Amino acid sequence: MPVAISDSHRDLLERPVIPHVATIMEDGTPRITPTRFYFDGTHILFTTTPSHIVYKTLRSRPQASISLQDPDQSFRSLEVRAVVEAIEPDPEARLLAIVGRKYGIDFPAPTTLPSDRVILRLRPLSAITSEE
């Protein structure tokens, strides 16, 4: 069962905030990547292709930590620790279009994108908030 995100910080998942996603590389070292995402109310969704490092790291080690900082209040933040619950094919880049709308980006037509696009569906395990 996914953990509930506190109402006090849920907006950070719904606004077009750029999170930093921490994953574990093959050699055991951490890797942090800024990216875009979509929150469906329960899961954190990323769109990628199998050639990207974030896909490779999460496929072999499905744990991630996602850090979001409020751009309006620099010490207000949310960290979500999560696990990959599913990797789903998305050849029509449907999630990319949804993410684009959230962030005000008009991505290229799906026919010009790689057809091996996937959705990484992450289930939150814990959420840590800060408001110093």
Features:
7 strands, Pnp Oxidase, Chain A, 39% strand, 3 helices, 132 residues, alpha+beta, 7-stranded antiparallel sheet
Explain what the structure shows.
- The chain is an alpha+beta fold and 132 residues long.
- It is 17% helix and 39% strand.
- The protein has one domain: Electron Transport, Fmn-binding Protein, Chain A (Pnp Oxidase, Chain A).
- The chain has helices at residues 11-14, 53-60, 94-103, and strands at 20-24, 30-34, 38-39, 44-48, 63-69, 76-89, 118-131.
- A hairpin with a 6-residue loop joins β5 (63-69) and β6.
- The mean pLDDT is 93.
Total domain units: 1
Judged by helices, strands and strand pairing, the structural class is alpha+beta
What gyration radius follows from the Cα positions, in whole Å? 15 Å
Task: Please outline the major beta sheet.
Answer: 7 strands, antiparallel
Figure out the total of helices. 3
Task: Enumerate the spans where pLDDT stays under 50 for 5 or more consecutive residues.
Answer: none
List the helices and strands and how they pair.
Layout: H1 11-14, E1 20-24, E2 30-34, E3 38-39, E4 44-48, H2 53-60, E5 63-69, E6 76-89, H3 94-103, E7 118-131
Antiparallel strand pairs: 1-2, 1-5, 3-4, 4-7, 5-6, 6-7
Task: Put the structure in a nutshell.
This protein has helices at 11-14, 53-60, 94-103; strands at residues 20-24, 30-34, 38-39, 44-48, 63-69, 76-89, 118-131.
